[in-house]
């Protein structure tokens, strides 16, 4: 039965791939333009902001720092999320760096046997989030031109992730399996520090190239899809049945597939600001198939349940929209009752901006690890006193 289902999925995938290739040959100019847009997003937004996180986090895992901190943070993570203390690592770094670092680090922990399969399943449900650089810099400031509304984006997004984590703490709650830790010091390795660093850099480069490939591919797919008469006909039918404007539907579909493009389309619409933010928070919580493809490529190297990841991301988006509406009702209703004029968002391509993002990302990475270190020491001291 499973083999038949797998065969059908492969057959459908081949058909879709052929249709996409036909559209690419029919619209070579559009395909090249779309690929360039995807490349700009990767090179100017993702590469400088994610690369330092990937290298430094890989290095700390390899040296055993995270295993050490994890033991100190066990009293915090175990009662809340039913995962070992080391689970704070992908969760906190994901909140700072953004997609898909949380999924990458969770997979790394499982590959290094630092968490169990069940802990990996629980952890992957809430440790894949967007980062403040995208939420505040790209969406609120660049697309909506409303940085003063940061609580209306940040709070629902991260509260949604935490809620998912609290729910999934009960997933297979009777499972008592755990990783035994016999050694309480840093890992020893036969490799030199130079070899260790070069290995982490290589892994970071491989990950970034893979992420870039997905961003470019999905950017091309979205633009080709919107040029398809069949797709536009389907959207027209859905628009008439649901009474939802077709431009809103296009933005939602784009965001479901590729997050940045979808957010750009929704932000440019002439609709009430609260409606924009409700849709945007769902899309950001969901993440988009482009990000899911990146995350699943990391998860596929482990035995972590990918279905849990996908289901949790849908509910993350739904909860983020729900919390947005609650926050709007209690605090922002008077401020967001009218339509909102947006600015035209363009991706900065100058080297000075690129270098600034890279340096700031490195600073945030180091600061984050210092904070985690201090937190782990404080918790250890409190535990000793008790």
Automatic annotation (TrEMBL):
InterPro entries: Gate_dom, Spore_IM_YlbJ
Segments traversing the membrane: 7-25, 45-68, 80-101, 149-171, 208-226, 277-296, 308-330, 354-379
Keyword Secreted: no
Keyword terms of this UniProt record: Membrane, Transmembrane, Transmembrane helix
A Pfam cross-reference name: Gate
UniProt entry tagged with the keyword Transmembrane helix: yes
Domain of life: Bacteria
Name of this chain's protein: Sporulation integral membrane protein YlbJ
């Amino acid at each position: 039965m499973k083999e038949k289902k797998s065969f059908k999925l492969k057959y459908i995938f081949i058909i879709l791939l052929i249709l996409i290739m036909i559209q690419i040959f029919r619209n070579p100019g559009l395909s090249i333009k779309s690929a360039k847009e995807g490349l700009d997003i990767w090179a100017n937004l993702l590469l400088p902001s994610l690369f330092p996180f990937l290298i430094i986090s890989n290095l700390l895992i390899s040296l055993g720092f995270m295993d050490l901190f994890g033991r100190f943070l066990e009293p915090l993570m175990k009662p809340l999320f039913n995962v070992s203390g080391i689970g704070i690592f992908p969760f906190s770094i994901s909140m700072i760096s953004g997609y898909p670092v949380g999924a990458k680090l969770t997979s790394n922990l499982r590959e290094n046997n630092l968490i169990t399969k069940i802990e990996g399943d629980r952890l992957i449900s809430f440790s894949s989030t967007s980062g403040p650089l995208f939420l505040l810099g790209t969406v609120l400031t660049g697309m909506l031109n409303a940085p003063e509304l940061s609580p209306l984006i940040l709070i629902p997004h991260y509260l949604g992730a935490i809620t998912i984590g609290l729910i999934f703490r009960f997933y297979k709650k009777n499972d008592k399996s755990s990783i035994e830790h016999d050694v309480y010091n840093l890992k020893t390795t036969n490799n030199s520090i130079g070899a260790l660093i070069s290995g982490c850099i290589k892994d970071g480069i491989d990950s970034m190239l893979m992420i870039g490939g997905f961003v470019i591919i999905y950017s091309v797919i979205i633009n080709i899809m919107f040029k398809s008469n069949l797709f536009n006909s389907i959207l027209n039918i859905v628009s008439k049945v649901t009474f939802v404007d077709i431009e809103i539907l296009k933005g939602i579909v784009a965001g479901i597939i590729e997050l940045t493009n979808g957010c750009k389309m929704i932000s440019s619409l002439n609709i009430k600001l609260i409606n924009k933010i409700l849709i945007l928070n769902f899309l950001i919580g969901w993440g988009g198939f482009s990000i899911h493809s990146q995350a699943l490529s990391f998860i596929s190297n482990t035995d972590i349940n990918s279905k849990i990841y996908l289901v949790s991301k849908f509910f993350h988006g739904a909860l983020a929209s729900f919390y947005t509406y609650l926050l709007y009702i209690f605090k922002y209703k008077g401020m967001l009752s009218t339509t909102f004029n947006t600015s035209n968002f363009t991706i900065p391509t100058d080297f000075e901006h690129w270098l600034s993002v890279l340096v700031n990302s490195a600073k945030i990475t180091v600061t984050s690890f210092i904070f985690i270190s201090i937190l782990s020491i404080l918790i250890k001291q409190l535990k000793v006193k008790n």
